[in-house]
Amino acid sequence: MMKTKPKIKWTLDVLMTIALFFLMGYQFWGETAHEWIGAGMLVLFIFHQVCNLSWYKNLFRGRYMPFRILQCVINILTLAAMLALLYSGITMSRHVFTFLPIRGGMAPARRLHILGSYWGYLLMSLHLGMHWGMVLRLTVKKNVWQCKYRTAGFIISLLIAIYGSYVFFKRNFLTYMFLRSEFVFLDYGESKLLFFLDYLALMGLCIFVAHYGARLVKKS
Predict the structure, then answer these.
(1) From 16, 84, 188, 215, which residue has the greatest number of CB atoms within 10 Å?
(2) CA-to-CA distance for 67 and 212, rounded, in angstroms?
(3) Whether the Cβ atoms of residue 67 and residue 218 lie closer than 8 Å to each other
(4) Is 186 exposed, middle or buried (0-12, 13-18, 19+ CB in 10 A)?
(5) How far lies 66's CA from each of 156, 160, 215, 217, in Å?
């Protein structure tokens, strides 16, 4: 049985990822809901950092093997994306953080918010994928997974990852990740189901890459 603290840390990871998942669907919920979900993300982010203080303390201790380097890079990039999102979100706020004496800076904040949103979604999904083994241990009995569902699970995951790759290009992630456009196209008439299935598949792609990539790195 897993200890309480790892469960809490994993739960925070999942909740933050789900929050970002809904934040990407801005056109469905509107500006006010978007800001409140973003404020909830801020609270989860603070708790997440508190729960992971030991990780920061141990950054300069021990050996850096390939897996630890990979994990560290993803964590630091995810942290940078989250800080960019939180700063730009608070700067552009028209509802939740209007009590703060912030004036100007809207244009750079908008650019930073686009970068943080698209990089952040992928990096948080990769971060979740690095801990996917923990998810499996929490949800599936080890002997059942190894004996009955391992091959089927891999095939299903691969199919999701292939569709997620298609979604990555269909949703123009490269355009927004490298700020080739400063305005995000939002289809207000799009089906919610299709939108969230696409973003789930894209998350599945990142989890697949991180989970199996991490296993290969560990073996090496």
Answers:
(1) 16
(2) 12
(3) yes
(4) exposed
(5) 28, 27, 11, 6
Check residue 151 and give its pLDDT.
Answer: 79
The angle formed by the CA atoms of residues 85, 89 and 93, to the nearest 5 degrees, is 175
Q: How many Å apart are CA 117 and CA 138, to the nearest integer?
A: 29
Pair of tokens at residue 35: 């800001």
Distances in Å between the Cα of 73 and the Cα atoms of 11, 79, 198 are 21, 10, 26
pLDDT digits (tens, 9 = 90+) for 49-67: 888 888 888 888 888 988 8
State how far the Cα of 85 lies from the Cα of 111, in Å rounded to an integer: 10
Rounded CA separation 87/1 (Å): 38
| Choice between 6 and 42, residue whose per-residue pLDDT is larger | 42
Q: How far is it, in rounded angstroms, from Cα 212 to Cα 203?
A: 14
Q: What is the pLDDT of residues 84-138, one digit of tens each?
A: 999 999 999 999 999 888 888 888 999 999 999 999 999 999 998 888 876 666 6
Cα 64 → chain centroid: 24
